[in-house]
């Protein structure tokens, strides 16, 4: 596993940068949050009517990621079009498993549906935000010293090991989960330069 992580960090098979400009008809000012839902963290429960969208910070095959705010707390708002709902529900189900709280995973705050004035909508996951972006872009701009390299590799490998671990505790069960799409685009860099594993839309529970 450590060799896999090292190969991910050292890989130079980069892809072209994704255009994250807002497309016509997707102006976030058209979005309205559904009432009576909440975004939660350890200490607070916020109504999603307080969730404000700022700008697009990422674009993937199945979703668009916005920077958002709940009061003064920055969050990542991952939006799936309705026709990609299977990826939304799969990722939501994985994050909702028991014992999925780990330093190498994003914090999952909740989910909702956003409706637009034109009747279209988006399925939304609200997650913790990593301002340094994904590992692919970080490696393009920075050369790692040995200490940072080791810290990143350790956080990725421990996260993968935990994801793959079946846990039975306190009458609850977390199955082994395989990510199935691990690459530098799906690994995010945290403020302390450790990494966390993201994008669980293709993940599968092994039972």
UniProtKB/TrEMBL annotation:
Which residues does the annotation say bind ATP?
78
Q: Which residues form the Protein kinase domain?
A: 51-207
Its predominant location is membrane
Instruction: Write down the Pfam families for this protein, in alphabetical order.
Output: PK_Tyr_Ser-Thr
PROSITE patterns registered for this protein in UniProt = PROTEIN_KINASE_ATP, PROTEIN_KINASE_DOM
Q: Where in the cell is it found?
A: Membrane
Signal peptide positions on this chain: 1-15
Give a GO cellular-component term. Answer: receptor complex
What are the UniProt keywords, alphabetically?
ATP-binding, Kinase, Membrane, Nucleotide-binding, Receptor, Serine/threonine-protein kinase, Signal, Transferase, Transmembrane, Transmembrane helix
Q: How does it sit in the membrane?
A: Single-pass type I membrane protein
List this protein's GO terms for biological process.
BMP signaling pathway
Q: What SUPFAM superfamilies does the entry give?
A: Protein kinase-like (PK-like)
Enzyme kind, highest EC tier:
transferase
Q: Name one GO molecular function term.
A: transforming growth factor beta receptor activity
Which EC number(s) are documented for this chain? 2.7.11.30
InterPro entries tied to this protein: Kinase-like_dom_sf, Prot_kinase_dom, Protein_kinase_ATP_BS, Ser-Thr/Tyr_kinase_cat_dom, TGFB_receptor
Sorted alphabetically, which PANTHER family does this protein's record hold? RECEPTOR PROTEIN SERINE_THREONINE KINASE, TRANSFORMING GROWTH FACTOR-BETA RECEPTOR TYPE I AND II
Family statement: Belongs to the protein kinase superfamily. TKL Ser/Thr protein kinase family. TGFB receptor subfamily.
Q: What is this protein called?
A: receptor protein serine/threonine kinase
Q: Which organism is it from?
A: Panstrongylus lignarius
Name the lineage.
Eukaryota, Metazoa, Ecdysozoa, Arthropoda, Hexapoda
């Amino acid at each position: 596993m450590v060799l896999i992580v090292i190969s991910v960090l050292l890989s130079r098979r980069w892809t072209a940068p994704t255009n994250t400009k807002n497309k016509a008809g997707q102006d976030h000012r058209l979005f309205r949050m559904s009432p009576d839902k909440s975004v939660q963290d350890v200490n607070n429960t916020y109504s999603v009517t307080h969730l404000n969208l700022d700008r697009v910070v990422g674009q993937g095959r199945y979703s668009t990621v916005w920077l958002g705010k709940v009061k003064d707390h920055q969050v990542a708002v991952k939006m799936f079009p309705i026709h990609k709902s299977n990826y939304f529900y799969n990722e939501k189900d994985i994050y909702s498993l028991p014992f999925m709280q780990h330093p190498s995973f994003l914090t999952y705050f909740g989910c909702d549906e956003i409706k637009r004035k034109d009747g279209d909508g988006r399925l939304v996951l609200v997650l913790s935000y990593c301002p340094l972006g994904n590992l692919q872009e970080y490696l393009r701009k920075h050369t790692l010293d040995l200490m940072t390299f080791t810290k990143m590799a350790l956080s990725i490998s421990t996260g993968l090991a935990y994801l793959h671990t079946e846990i039975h505790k306190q009458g609850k069960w977390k199955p082994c989960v395989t990510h199935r799409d691990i690459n530098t685009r799906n690994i995010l860099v945290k403020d302390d330069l450790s990494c966390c594993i993201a994008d669980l839309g293709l993940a599968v529970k092994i039972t």
